[in-house]
């Protein structure tokens, strides 16, 4: 039994050693797997790390059209707008037209009761008839006085009449002639009154002075019209709505750019997205000053074939003052850009960017400064300042008048700063 027991103990020790070795082997394999997994993760993170953000916001030099414009606002008006009023007083009896009525020159717009003015005509005519009878009587008296004067004169020549009788006859004759002249003058004055009365009767009918359309009617039948020193406006007639004009207020800083016959575009809120073509016909010299702001009126004639534009609409006018076709152009942001001076411990990406003479100096007319990107490596871009010749601008782009920069050249328009928090987040990001 002792020999068998010894054999069993030896077998147990052998099996126990083999089990311990397998345990350590498994641990080693697990550790190696973990190390491989960590290494793969680090390698993946390194391979998929997001690139550093660009230091600058860049834009390219392009080729296209640049149009310099001046904008102004104004009111739409007809080319010819006539205010029609009344020249006599009275009660309106008829108004045969209404808003939007199309009228011809000479059409009756309204009628005023002519009774009073007709009575004045009749009275004046009767007065003229009476004065004509008085004139005939005065002429007869004059003739009689003339004959008497001639008879007395012959008697005086024959010494049959005295000097006093001759003078009396002459005086009577002269008075008769004066009375006849006065009667004739009274008839002329009364004829003038008759003409005025007939004119007033004619004024009781209000006629259209032009061909057009009634855009305002300010009177109804039964209303009383009182024509004083200023004739009341009863109707407003627009001659032709197919051609309108815009009375635009141009700022004094822009009025020097505007000339007659320049092309212009008009837009109104009533028809968004639709443009009406026009042309500048007049730039007035008279200033308009409102609360210290000085503007000048520019007249822009606009085509209105569909009669969509209506009097009184507010319109925005864009006048094309100068234009450059298919030219090199740079974004205005590139011309406005000024780099932030770097700190002493920061890398300098723009050559001589902090020099006052390079950035802060006043540029002469027709010159601009841009910063050309010479190294596009992300995170370490470099740019150099460059002076260029510039022309007109449309607010977004400015014309290059020389070929110092080619199309596609990258320019700095802004700096893209990264905060320390953004750097930490970018460093912690793994997936």
Which ranges are low-confidence, i.e. pLDDT below 50, for 5 or more consecutive residues? 352-358, 419-423, 426-431
Counting structural domains, the number is 5
> What strand line-up does the widest sheet have?
2-11-14-13-12-15
- Alpha-carbon Rg, integer: 52 Å
Helix-strand pattern, N to C?
HEEEEEEHHEEEEEEEEEHHEEEEH
Task: Provide key terms for this protein.
5 domains; Elongation Factor Tu (Ef-tu), domain 3; 431 residues; 6 helices; alpha+beta; elongated
How would you concisely characterize the structure shown here?
This protein is α+β, with helices and mostly antiparallel strands. The protein is 34% helix and 34% strand.
Question: Could you characterize what this model shows?
Answer:
With 431 residues, the chain is of the alpha+beta class. The chain has 5 domains: 1-48; 56-64 and 328-428, no CATH class; 72-78 and 237-322, Elongation Factor Tu (Ef-tu), domain 3, CATH 2.40.30.170; 88-109 and 210-236, no CATH class; 114-203, Helix hairpin bin (Helix Hairpins). The protein has 6 helices and 19 strands. The chain has helices spanning 2-47, 115-157, 163-203, 332-336, 356-359, 420-428; strands at residues 56-60, 62-78, 81-85, 90-94, 102-103, 108-112, 205-207, 212-217, 224-225, 233-238, 243-251, 263-268, 276-290, 293-303, 314-331, 367-375, 382-393, 397-400, 410-415. A 6-stranded antiparallel beta barrel has the order 2-11-14-13-12-15. It is elongated.
């Amino acid at each position: 039994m002792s020999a068998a027991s010894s054999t069993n103990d030896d077998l147990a020790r052998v099996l126990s050693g083999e089990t311990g070795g397998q345990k350590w082997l498994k641990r080693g394999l697990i550790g190696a797997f973990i190390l491989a997994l960590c290494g793969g993760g680090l390698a993946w993170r390194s391979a998929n790390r997001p690139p550093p953000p660009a230091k600058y916001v860049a834009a390219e030099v392009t080729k296209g059209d640049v149009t310099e414009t001046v904008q102004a606002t104004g009111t739409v008006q007809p080319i010819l707008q006539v205010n029609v009023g009344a020249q006599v007083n009275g009660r309106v009896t008829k108004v045969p037209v209404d808003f939007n009525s199309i009228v011809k020159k000479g059409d009756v717009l309204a009628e005023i009761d002519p009774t009073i003015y007709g009575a004045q005509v009749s009275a004046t005519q009767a007065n003229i008839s009476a004065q004509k009878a008085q004139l005939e009587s005065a002429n007869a008296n004059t003739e009689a006085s003339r004959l008497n004067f001639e008879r007395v004169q012959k008697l005086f020549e024959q010494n049959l009449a005295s000097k006093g009788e001759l003078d009396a006859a002459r005086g009577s004759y002269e008075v008769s002639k004066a009375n006849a002249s006065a009667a004739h003058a009274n008839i002329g004055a009364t004829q003038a009154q008759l003409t005025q009365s007939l004119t007033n009767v004619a004024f009781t009918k209000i006629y259209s002075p032009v061909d057009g359309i009634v855009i305002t009617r300010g009177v109804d039948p039964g209303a009383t019209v009182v024509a004083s020193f200023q004739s009341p406006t009863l109707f407003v007639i627009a001659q032709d709505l197919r051609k309108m004009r815009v009375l635009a207020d141009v700022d004094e800083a822009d009025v020097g750019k505007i000339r007659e016959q320049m092309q212009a575009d008009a837009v109104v809120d009533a028809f968004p997205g639709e443009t009406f073509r026009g042309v500048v016909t007049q730039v007035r010299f008279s200033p308009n000053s409102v609360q210290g702001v000085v503007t000048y009126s520019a007249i822009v004639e606009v085509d209105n074939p569909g009669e969509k534009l209506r009097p009184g609409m507010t319109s925005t006018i864009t006048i094309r003052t100068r234009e450059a076709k298919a030219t090199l152009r740079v974004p205005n942001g590139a011309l406005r850009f000024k780099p932030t001076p770097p700190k002493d411990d920061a890398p300098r990406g723009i050559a001589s960017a902090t020099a006052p003479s390079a950035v802060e100096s006043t540029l002469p007319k027709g010159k601009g400064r841009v910063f050309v990107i010479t190294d596009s490596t992300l995170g370490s871009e470099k740019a150099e300042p460059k002076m260029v010749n510039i022309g007109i601008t449309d607010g977004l782009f400015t014309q290059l008048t020389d070929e110092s920069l080619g199309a596609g050249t990258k320019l700095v328009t802004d700096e893209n700063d990264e905060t320390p928090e953004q750097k930490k987040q970018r460093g912690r990001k793994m997936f």
